[in-house]
Amino acid sequence: MVRPITITAVERSFAVEGEAPVRALAPVHLTVAGGEFLSLVGPSGCGKTTLLRIIAGLLPATAGEVRIGDDVVRAPDPRVGIVFQKPTLLPWRSVMENCLLPVEIMRPFSPAEGRERAEALLHLTGLWDFRDRLPRELSGGMQQRAAIARALVPDPEILLMDEPFSALDEFTRERLNEELLRLCAERPKTVIFVTHNIGEAVFLSDRIGVMAPRPGRLGAVIDLATLPRQRDAGLRKHPAYFDKMAETRAAFDELLA
Ligand SMILES: Nc1ncnc2c1ncn2[C@@H]1O[C@H](COP(=O)(O)OP(=O)(O)OP(=O)(O)O)[C@@H](O)[C@H]1O
Ligand SMILES: [Mg+2]
Fold first, then answer.
1. What pLDDT does residue 230 have?
2. What confidence score (pLDDT) does residue 111 get?
3. How far, in Å, is the centroid of ligand 1 from the Cα of 167?
4. Considering only CA atoms, which of 4, 14, 3 is closest in space to residue 61?
5. CA-to-CA distance for 144 and 35, rounded, in angstroms?
6. C-alpha 47 to ligand 1 mean position (Å)
7. 44 pocket-lining for ligand 1 (C-beta < 6 Å)
8. Ligand nearest to the CA of 48
9. In terms of Cα–Cα distance, which of 31, 140, 151 is closest to 100?
10. Could you give the C-alpha distances from 54 to 20, 72, 145, 156, 205, in angstroms and in order?
11. Is the CB of 28 within 6 Å of ligand 1?
12. What is the DSSP letter of 86?
């Protein structure tokens, strides 16, 4: 049973010295069903990372609450996997050792099974040949791929991803989009995925939340249920894909007008 995420009237302000507080989030209401893939798109500074950090239990809300299933989020939950906007690898551990970290801490699998999963994900993300390197010996995009592999190793029930593929070339991004969907199909997860790329959001998601700034808020939700179920490379050529991109862009234009 994969749990839903319920966001009820979540607000967040930040104090700024000598100025009025920044309203990073006006009340946000959103329910992400168990097993649903929801993307958040919106211009820089509209509160996407702030919302994700609140859902992850890394930042308290000023008001409102987030529930995962029936549990109110008060602290990070080990069943929640997070990929941050900037890769956060431990600099003294190799790529493989970084990927094994969540298995060592949480022990969701036997050590042998954990290693098997880490190996498979390092192959998948194209990092197998770099498994013994330290993070500083990798490019930014490779570090980000290592952070993605690490988040997936413990097979989290909830996956929060903050622009995970933005540092990657288009070809690698598309391939990893397809692999991410394959992993979600294999073992259902509730996913919230932040991106600036509308095509990526349409390709991956069941729904897209369009956010607007000042104050940060959820302005529109686009339902993608009418897209063909088969989300493979062929979808990127399907007329319905372009229609949904246009619909998302129009929602954006309306919100920012
Ligand atoms: N720790 C903080 N202190 C003060 N202000 C903050 C802090 N964190 C975020 N903010 C402000 O809150 C607003 C939302 O920031 P957030 O990082 O959530 O935006 P974002 O949508 O993720 O942007 P981007 O697309 O650039 O990553 C911004 O105005 C930002 O300046
Ligand atoms: Mg951000």
1. 78
2. 85
3. 19
4. 14
5. 24
6. 6
7. yes
8. 1
9. 151
10. 22, 11, 24, 18, 21
11. no
12. S
Query: Is any ligand 1 atom within 6 A of the Cβ of residue 209?
Result: no
Dist. CA 249 → ligand 2 center (Å): 19
Structural domains of the chain, with CATH: 5-79+157-256 (3.40.50.300), 89-156 (no CATH)
Q: Does 45 contact ligand 1 (Cβ within 6 A)?
A: yes
Q: Return the residue whose CA atom lies nearest to atom 11 of ligand 1.
A: 24
Average pLDDT, the chain: 92
**Pair of tokens at residue 212:** 């607007």
pLDDT in tens, 162-185: 999 988 889 889 988 998 898 888
Closest CA to 86 of 135, 127, 120: 135
Does ligand 1 lie within 6 Å of residue 52's CB atom?
no
Q: CA angle, 34 as apex, 240 and 27 as ends, to 5°? A: 85
Q: What is the pLDDT of residue 66?
A: 98
| Burial degree of 194 (CB within 10 A; 0-12, 13-18, 19+) | buried
pTM of this structure: 0.93
Distance from the alpha carbon of residue 50 to the mean position of ligand 2, in angstroms: 7
What is the C-alpha separation between 185 and 85, in angstroms, rounded? 24
Tokens of residue 159, six digits: 């996956």
**Atom 5 of ligand 1: nearest residue by CA position:** 14
